[in-house]
TrEMBL record:
Keywords: Cell outer membrane, Membrane, Signal, Transmembrane. Its main location: membrane. Transmembrane segments: none annotated. It comes from the Bacteria. Pfam families: Omp85, POTRA. This is BamA/TamA family outer membrane protein.
Length: 783
């Protein structure tokens, strides 16, 4: 905690230095210059204020304090700016420029005009003091104009029919509403898309023209909208696809073989492969513009999306050539990605005084069978060091983890019967995977785990995603260290021994459904749902019953000499996203789950299938696997067991979590990224299904007690958004800790006298230490 306190103090001092240093930046300016330090707009309707601010020139917006400090550090000398300045370092001072002020005022006025405020006035007021300038754009909006009558004329009756069928029911341009130019543009765009989707390849947006008549008494206008015909015709032409050409380009090594050519006369399709490595049918499946069909912008975009999602091509282009008055030839042009690739990744980890690293390598081979399939071979090794262990560096290894995996992704559904989800909303995939894990924890536990699965994934609609894994075959060989095992038996932890020192087979099925997964990065209002179901052992139970397979000493049925798993597990993740305007967003999340072992091993769920609480994506004031179950307090363990059972004894079969988070923008430009902030409240826990006084006293779920065993944490987070990825730093503060009882659960009351509280906790829980604040560093949003 001392290190954390020093870090916070150092960071606070650094921010204060940056703040005051940037405030003194005006001393480097000439006497006739002024640094813009404040810009505001007053008198604008609240709903339009944020949009109006975007029309203020960037050259007269206040600088980022950090960027300006960096610029001044490298570009000043003797109280003046250097003649020769270092470019691309920091951000030059934004100086008062009357031309930019007038331009911004005019831009704001034009924006308000487009929103129906035809007589809006914008008067900038400038005040300068000590070389610092404040700009206030004072707005007099006037009375907004309302739409009285709308007169739409179409020179082509077919176009009128399309408009009335597809555009008119969705348009926002209506009588007795405030004029808004954006609504007219939206209507024009809707008609453009509808026309292009109905075969009108030549149609352009400029055929729709809108006129505004504001000569009427009062704040009223009439709209006159006219959709014209082409200048060289009395009708708009509807185009049909004639021939289709597919060409796979070879821009890599020169091939000595002649390009492979395949002609399908029935489909009027010519396939040319300069690489001699692709099959045309897997590609043609996602080329939705085919001979005999009318041109469609929707089908063109869908073809682009699916072909890029295959991940086999660096470039996909579609060109259309007019063959005669109403025919089009389509040319699909592909540039493949490199056939082989390799990626090395690494990270440094630290947790509870321990540190370590993970390193991984992923080898990939694309188009392995000629249909843009992708084979991945992944290797990963991680090690965690505990400085409290005696001996040299090799003796301080707390655990090490080696994983090897193979994935084969096929961009279609490989099933023994006819099914065609079509890929209308997303690329269907078949994935074969195998993973082997070798895990060892010092003088405690070793695990050998193998799993292989067959998975199908597809989109039912744009926002409904399904993932079905009909076969999940797994084998696990878990072994406790002999000395550690004997100690557990002597101290009465036989149930823990039986649940971890065991071998098993598993044969099950999994299913996942996701609603609105594609909207997670949007700012709109929506609800997200993810539900999973995992069932295992029923088929093996039926086989063992029919074949009368033998049982072990605990009465578990065995197959190939090893017991098999039998359980059902389900988990739900519901989220409510609400946009509060601009970059402000509120998110509520509810995440329950339950796992029930039954039949062949009904006593206790295995480690891999159990729930845990805490961590960077859950209750952030606790480290992962250090909360619960229920009111369980690790003081009931002996000191050496507390050391060896870390992250292994705080699991459960029931999980309840809820999170509420408010997100907002802090800085639009911070070292080239956007800096967002968040405040949050997390609550929840995990519980055991059955009472277990041996391993987790007080950890069972009871309806009359579980609410009192809910942990509560709060905190603040920083998110650095570079548009490509988000770097996240969250600090969670414990408020209510269920390992204590009664009023003592509200540990926040000890936050300001934490030294004594922590010392007392360490005496009764050593080597565990108590931290009020938990820092979480991660990539991506928590939910």
């Amino acid at each position: 905690m001392i290190k954390y306190t020093r870090f916070i103090g150092f960071a606070s001092i650094t921010l204060l230095v940056l703040f005051f240093a940037s405030c003194r930046s005006s001393k480097y300016l000439d006497d006739d210059q002024a640094l813009v330090t404040k810009v505001q707009i007053s008198g604008v309707t609240p709903a339009l204020k944020e949009s109006s601010e975007t029309y203020i020139s960037n050259q007269i917006r206040p600088n980022s304090r950090v960027n300006l400090f960096i610029y001044n550090t490298f570009n000043t000398k003797n109280g003046r700016y250097k003649t020769k300045k270092i470019r691309n370092v920091g951000e030059p001072p934004h100086l008062l420029d009357s031309a930019m002020v007038d331009l911004s005022a005019n831009q704001i006025r034009r924006f308000l005009f487009s929103k129906g405020y035809f007589k809006a006035k914008v008067e900038p007021t400038i005040s300068v003091s000590k070389k610092r300038a404040h700009i206030d754009f004072k707005v007099d909006e006037g009375v907004p104009y309302q739409v009285r009558n709308i007169d739409r004329k179409f020179e082509d009756e077919d176009i009128k029919a399309i408009f009335e069928r597809e555009v008119l029911p969705k348009t926002s341009v209506k009588s007795n509403t405030q004029y808004d130019a954006a609504k007219l543009l939206d209507e024009r765009e809707k008609l453009y898309v509808s026309m292009r989707n109905n075969g009108y390849y030549d149609y352009v947006r400029q055929y729709m023209r809108a006129g505004v008549d504001s000569t009427i008494d009062g704040a009223l206008i009439d709209l006159k909208i006219n959709v014209e015909n082409p200048s060289d015709s009395t009708i708009h032409k509807k185009y049909q696809i004639d021939s289709v050409y597919m060409t796979i380009r070879n821009y890599g090594t020169m091939s000595k073989k002649e390009p492979r050519r395949i002609l399908d006369s029935a489909k009027r399709l010519l396939f040319v492969d300069e690489t001699n490595s692709f099959r045309w049918k897997p590609l043609e499946r996602y080329m939705y513009l085919r001979s005999g069909q009318y041109y469609s912008l929707r089908e063109e975009n869908k073809s682009y999306d699916r072909l890029y999602e295959m991940n086999g091509f660096r470039s996909v282009k579609m060109q259309f050539v007019k063959k005669d008055s109403n025919k089009l030839d389509v040319h699909y042009d592909f540039v493949p990605r490199p056939r082989m690739g390799n990626q090395i990744e690494g990270e440094y980890t630290f947790s509870s005084g321990m540190s370590g690293f993970n390193i991984g390598n992923t080898f990939s081979q694309r188009n392995i069978f000629g249909g843009s399939e992708q084979l991945e071979v992944k290797l990963r090794y991680g090690v965690l060091f505990d400085p409290r262990l005696a001996g040299g560096l090799s003796s301080k290894i707390f655990n090490n983890d080696f994983q090897a995996g193979v994935n084969l992704v096929i961009p279609r559904l490989m099933v023994p019967f006819h099914i065609n989800p079509g890929g209308k909303f997303g690329l269907p995939k078949t994935t074969y995977s195998m993973t082997l894990q070798l895990f060892d924890q010092d003088k405690t536990y070793s695990n050998r785990y193998f799993i292989t699965s067959l998975n199908y994934s597809w989109y039912e609609t744009e926002n409904k995603y399904h993932s079905f894994t009909p076969i999940v075959l797994e084998y696990r060989d878990g072994r406790l260290d002999s000395n550690f095992r004997n100690k557990l038996v002597q101290e009465g932890y036989q149930l823990y021994v039986r649940s971890n020192d065991r071998q098993y087979f598993g044969l099950g099925t999994q299913y996942t459904f996701i609603l609105n997964g594609k909207k997670l990065n949007s700012k709109e209002d929506f609800q997200y749902f993810r539900g999973t179901l995992d069932v295992s052992g029923n088929v093996l139970d039926l086989i063992s019953s029919l074949a009368k397979l033998p049982k072990n000493a605990d009465g578990e049925k065995k197959i190939f000499g090893v017991p098999f798993l039998q359980y059902a597990k389900t988990e739900f993740d519901y989220r409510l996203y609400r946009n509060l305007g601009g970059n402000r967003q509120f998110v509520f999340r509810f995440n329950p789950g339950i796992a029930i072992p039954y039949g062949n091993n009904s006593k206790l769920l295995i480690f891999e299938k159990s729930f845990y609480s805490g961590g960077m994506n859950g209750i952030r004031a606790w480290q992962a696997r250090t909360l619960g179950p229920g009111a369980y307090n690790r003081q009931s363990l002996s000191e050496d067991l507390r050391l060896n059972l870390r992250n292994l004894d705080q699991l459960g079969e029931i999980k309840l979590e809820a999170n509420a988070e408010y997100r907002f923008r802090l800085l639009n430009n911070f070292l080239g990224a956007k800096m967002n902030g968040a405040t949050f409240v997390d609550m929840g826990n995990v519980w055991r299904l059955k009472k277990d006084e041996e391993l987790n006293p007080g950890g069972e779920f009871k309806f009359n007690k579980f609410l009192g065993q809910v942990a509560i944490g709060t905190g603040f987070g920083l998110r650095f958004d570079s548009d490509y990825f988000v770097i996240r730093l969250d600090a969670g503060l414990k408020l209510k800790d269920p390992q204590f009882s009664g009023a003592d659960q509200w540990v926040i009351k000890h936050f300001f006298d934490s030294k004594e509280f922590k010392a007392q906790y360490y005496e009764t829980h050593r080597p565990d230490r108590y931290n009020f604040i938990q820092y979480n560093f991660g990539i991506g949003m928590p939910f």
